[in-house]
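Morning F.,

Quick status update on the modeling queue. The single chain you submitted on Monday has been processed. Sequence for confirmation:
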Amino acid sequence: MKTRLIAGTAVLALAASGALAQDLKFPVGEGAFNWDSYKAFDEAYNLDGQTITLFGPWRGEDQVLVESMLAYFEAASGVTVNYSSSEGYEQQLIIDAEAGSPPDVAVLPQPGLIAQLAAKGLVLPLAPETSQWLTDNYGAGASWAALGTYPGADGTAALYAFPYKADVKSLVWYSPENFEDAGYAIPATMEELKALTEKIVADGGTPWCIGLGSGGATGWPATDWVEDLLLRTQSPDVYDKWTSHQIPFNDPAIVAAIDEFGWFAKTDANVAGGAAAVASTDFRDSPKGLFSSPPQCYMHRQASFIPSFFPEGTKLGTDADFFYFPAYAGKDLGSPVLGAGTLAFVMKESEAARAFMEWLKTPIAHEVWMAQTGFVTPHTGVNRDLYGSEALKKQGEILANATTFRFDGSDLMPGAVGAGTFWTAMVDFVSGKSAQEVADTVEASWPK
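Structure tokens below.
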């Protein structure tokens, strides 16, 4: 049986999964959730007894969180969802798909890999209206629709993947107390951020902590800087042509973006330890300078995950906070956001699989996870007051207000470049080579 809403009151019955509806994380009909979207879905679908397999990247605590969302889909639709994951889930999915035993629905954080599967005819196109739905209902919606659109086996482009759960990279972390003590204001434009950088130096402080060290992956933090700065100095189509190699890696626009990173990272006075320390400082240690007394630095540009490496006991919003890595006021490029995210796609045709893709459009499918932890969404129809923390709410607002969203560029490039020569080139750059030299080296390494 399904959960029915009568006059706004939830009548709780056994969900198709066999769990009692009172096991749902948040009682249906209570709180500021968009229960109307749940009710409408519940009334539209009656798929009792049907089952889908869902294969995705979430394990451990994240699996508990996604399953708390799936419980509502099960209760509303009558479909049983068998979710699974594995350590090498990308490789496992490819093996299963090519062996003819894919899951009904899969979720991956690699749009390039999904595009490869679609080109082989292993992914099914989504409903044609979904592309327009994303454009209308997601912040920077056209960007998200494009992210899931690829050529199929016949070469015709279609929307194959639906973005669900995002990550934000365009963030600058700081200590509110340090800013207040020094009288510094949050910069609203790149011009103001550069002026603040220079003012901190003039005041005798160090503006930035930057570390590229990451073992065998050393260099990757700089690739995020370059990608963010490219989105702030060039139109989005230049970014797209760069990541797809329609323009060479050593195009003047890319060289200029690398030099823009050098403005921050290759000036001794701008970075803790001087420019020579950038390559050798571990990225996990680099933000700790924000919290020393006196501060070793005032700002640290890094993605939303970095608080995991803050000193124990650091309170977000009090001891540490962040602001949007701003765009140039003088370049009229809107409010671009660099990030990542997961995309869901259908691999086996079924009524239940199609229903699940429609479920992901509902605000409630986002709000259940939002209200807990570790989830942000560009969905503009959700109640952002439900976010489990102020930090997540601010990130959600950045996504919802974005004019352009672009996926991490190095993840879109061939592995030998995006997770190879691009990384090492950035180490060479901060170690003294010119932007032109390192861009030429990466271009020469691009698979022919």
